[in-house]
Amino acid sequence: MRHPVVAIDGPAASGKSTTARRVADRLGFAHLNSGLLYRAVTWIALERGWDDATLDFETKVRGLAIELVPTPGSLRVAVDGEDPGAALHTPRVAARVSAVSSVGAVRELALTQLRDAAGKWGLVCDGRDIGTEVFPDAEVKVFLVASAEERARRRLSDLREPGTKVRVEEEALRLRARDLADSTRALSPLRRAADAVEIDTTRLTVQEVVDQILALCEDRGIHSPAPPGTRPPRLT
What we know:
Elements: E1 5-9, H1 16-27, E2 30-33, H2 35-48, H3 57-62, E3 66-71, E4 74-79, H4 91-101, H5 104-118, E5 123-127, H6 130-134, E6 140-145, H7 148-158, H8 165-184, E7 197-200, H9 206-219
Parallel strand pairs: 1-5, 1-6, 2-5, 6-7
Antiparallel strand pairs: 3-4
């Protein structure tokens, strides 16, 4: 048994997490960014000096205890009782997370945690394979897209870097390369689920995208927010 799930997939910088967070707030659901689970495994692997290219890496991963620990207003990821905190967002982790997340045992571990979360709360979950692999029976499935140039501008803005024409072009090339890698990988590739609604966010505000998703939720009978003071924690 599980609670209702809103699955939001899409390529990097398409607006998934920002949108998912706002949709979750409006519905009174928990928000879970699946990428943080992969970052957590990457972090512990780096801390312990594990090489994801070795034969025993999957065995080590299967021995990890990953928890989503409730805290006031949020959830934190604990790995073997350790809280990585802001270390999840360091360049060191970012440089390795793509390779680590392609390992079968890592994806199995993340999938278990994601499905367990849906057994506890209504869930808005964003990632790259939520509607295809993690929750293929999700009540609402959305696939966000945007032009590579617009995604590049957003990414540079998030990083507080100058959005010059040259920098935008460089970042757009990196995003296209990431798109190709994500969509052609053998394990859980990035793709739109057949029953997902595609929304092009290139020229839309975040609120316009949120409103479209909430309308889809309403059509599927997901419309009752949790009473004040009972809203679930949020993993962001």
